[in-house]
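Collaborator request, handled under Task 6.
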Amino acid sequence: MAKQTGLLQFTGKLGNVIGYRRNGTYFLRSMPDVVQQTTATRRASRDFGIASRKGKLIRQAIVPHLEINPYGTLVNRLNKALITATKDRLTELKGFRFNPHTGVDQFFSHQPVITSGGMLHIPAQQLWPPAKATHLEIRVVAVRINFAQRQVTGCIDSAIIIDLSRPFNGAELAATVPGKGTLLVTLQVKAYEHGAAIENRRSKAADIIAVMTPAATKKQPVKVNRMPHVKRVLPYHPLPATKKTTLPASARQRE
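Structure tokens returned to the collaborator:
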């Protein structure tokens, strides 16, 4: 591979070369003359394409609401997580970190939870802020994405500021969006020192803390009302009485 050093750097195909970006640096590679794909490579290519489209939707829906530096690795990390999760296991995205260097669990002694009423509940506790932090901003970004139709159907963004000089008695923030599609809830925690954001990679975190997929519609079996089995009983009709035949005397004598 060759590094791009010109003023105009690019990604994608240009003639018989391909430009791409890795960790913030642009490179070039030549296109192969012949590409032979096996069944496995075709499947991998298909899965990568599906993951890329889903990842783009997730980034477009969530990242504009965050203040996290993705360090140039977000696209690849998210695509990898989506390939692992597959279509029916999107709940495995829970715990994905937009900041790869730290997670929101580093700030809490008791972790936030999503209640049955669709609220993010942060229990009263002793918080664990970074050194020099005087305040914490807690932000919840909840988005609803219809992956089948490739569109974001709803989003809410709510935040609170916690004064670390006072006891923290807990808090609740809205964390649900009505509508159809998969609900992803992201929690961001950001540290401040007297109103100024602390700019280091461990002073802020943003994780996907909940993924709620649409409930699978179960086909209900069709109930057929059957009459209870009854044996058929034929009516009884007694045979008519027969008249007794009396043999003549001559016949009785012959017997």
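The cover message to the collaborator said: "The chain has two domains: 1-33, 40-212. DSSP finds three helices and twelve strands in the chain. Please let us know whether this matches your experimental observations."
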